[in-house]
Amino acid sequence: VEHLCVRAVDWRMQRDGLPGLPSKHTYTNAQVFNKMPADKKILVEVISDVICPWCWIGKRNLESAITQSGLPVDVQWRPFLLRPSMPPEGVLKPPASASNPRVGFRLKSKGEAVGINFTGACERTPFTVPAHALLKYASEHEPGRQNALQEVLFRQYFTDGVYPGGDNLRLAAIEAGLDPEKAIAYAQREEVHAEIKEEALQNSASGVSGVPFFIVNGKPVFSGAQPVETILHALRQAAAAS
């Protein structure tokens, strides 16, 4: 699948000694995903990681599809860890060079087409569990702001070159309109970090090997930064079936 970020390791093997899933999407446990909400809004769940550039492009395409559809849609962001073994301080990136650019031409052009400036300016590959914890806070306590927070986190890392941790997460919370004191206190809790890791593990065990991964009304539909037309078709199908 094109326009997809694939995890670096199968961390289930590290934790449980389980054989890894093949690098394809076999939806073996779709019942873990949420079901159609009672108010009949379409629920789109996006399994994503903050360091996945195609997830940001997929977000822009999803938002365009929602606008074009005119349908009532709720979007929920769910965790995936592309680098599950990353230390909390992250890892220093190698210097950019002609043979090893941080942002390739294809990604750069695809981003520009949807108004995204990928700069590769952040010097470290991040540990993303704290950012996911902040997104979890927004989902549970200020759900109307989670999508805005996801946009801020993408922009901070991919455009501004800001590492998603520490005081930078507080600034992201403020920019997204969250209560920063409550949000950061929640996002720093070790039990929340454990929940993030477990949910990411569950998503992997359900057949997700790359992101963005889209679930519409509880049904896995596709992965990758799909074009607007593909997402629009899925939304209309969901509306017709509800």
UniProtKB/TrEMBL annotation:
One Pfam family recorded for the sequence: DSBA
Gene3D superfamilies: Glutaredoxin
Gene Ontology molecular functions: oxidoreductase activity
All residue ranges annotated as the DSBA-like thioredoxin domain in the record: 44-235
Domain of life: Eukaryota
PANTHER family the UniProt entry points to: GLUTATHIONE S-TRANSFERASE KAPPA (PTHR13887), THIOREDOXIN SUPERFAMILY PROTEIN (PTHR13887:SF41)
Entry protein name: DSBA-like thioredoxin domain-containing protein
